[in-house]
Amino acid sequence: MISNVAVDSGVFKLGYASANTSARIATEYAFGLNWYLSANVKWQVDYARTFFTGGAGPTPKLPQDRPDEGLFETQLQIAF
Question: What's the Rg (C-alpha) of the chain?
């Protein structure tokens, strides 16, 4: 799955968010696996990686990107 969020520039111009600390664009790539151990037991594993544009510069004139973030999660579900 791929998802993307782009923040309107008006948010920064009106002062609702700071261009120094808030990313302008976030793009996430994610995938997951499900394993059905029986009719009542499911185990799932998911991984997501998010890439940011902006949000880590010392000033708006020196933009830098926030570091990428990764998430790994797992779930064991019984009697679903």
Answer: 18
Integer CA distances (angstroms), 62 to 30, 73, 78, in order: 30, 35, 51
Q: How many Å apart are CA 51 and CA 38, to the nearest integer?
A: 37
Structure tokens at 24: 């302008």
Question: In this predicted model, what pLDDT tens digit does every residue of 43-77 receive, in sequence order?
Answer: 999 999 999 998 887 776 777 888 999 999 999 99
In angstroms, the CA 12 to CA 9 distance is 6
Residue pair 16/47 in contact by the 8 Å Cβ criterion: no
Tell me which amino acid residue 80 is. Answer: F
